[in-house]
Specification:
Blueprint: E1 11-15, H1 19-29, E2 34-38, H2 41-50, E3 55-58, E4 61-62, E5 65-66, H3 67-76, E6 85-89, H4 94-102, E7 107-110, H5 115-135
Parallel strand pairs: 1-2, 1-3, 3-6, 6-7
Antiparallel strand pairs: 4-5
């Protein structure tokens, strides 16, 4: 997967407590994006202090921690609320999806995922956020 010419690679913060899932997702994204992965919500908060990613991808449940609470934190924090958030999760019910969007997620992708599909969705989400930021000026 090649990045579109003229655009810098997006930096994605990936949060997933399952090492195998993190590695699979990172592998699916690494040809088109720069992926920083962490295994806990606490590590995600620390990452925000060290660098600002262009996008967050998180599992709904990260160990005993809630990716939904991470979404709520991002949406309530003026320094982070512009950040696109994708939930990449094994939670599949309509109730789960509605809860994810209610918590502030911009997209909801169910595992297992197709690598091409998720790459396209990330680029779409980035484009939407870019257009949103232009209209706010």
């Amino acid at each position: 997967m090649r990045k579109p010419q003229g655009l810098r690679q997006l930096h994605i913060l990936l949060v997933d407590g399952d090492q195998n899932a993190r590695e699979k997702t990172q592998h699916a994204l690494e040809s088109g994006f720069i992926v920083h992965s962490v295994a806990s919500i606490g590590e995600a908060y620390t990452s925000f202090e060290m660098f600002m990613p262009d996008m967050l991808i998180t599992e709904v449940m990260v160990g005993q921690e809630s990716g939904l609470n991470l979404c709520r934190h991002i949406r309530s924090n003026p320094a982070l609320n512009h950040l696109p958030v994708m939930l990449l999760t094994s939670f599949t019910t309509l109730h789960d999806k509605v809860a994810g969007f209610d918590a502030g997620a911009d997209d909801y992708v169910v595992k297992p995922f197709d690598a091409h599909h998720i790459n396209v969705r990330i680029r779409l989400l980035a484009r939407i956020k870019r257009l949103e930021s232009r209209t706010k000026l």
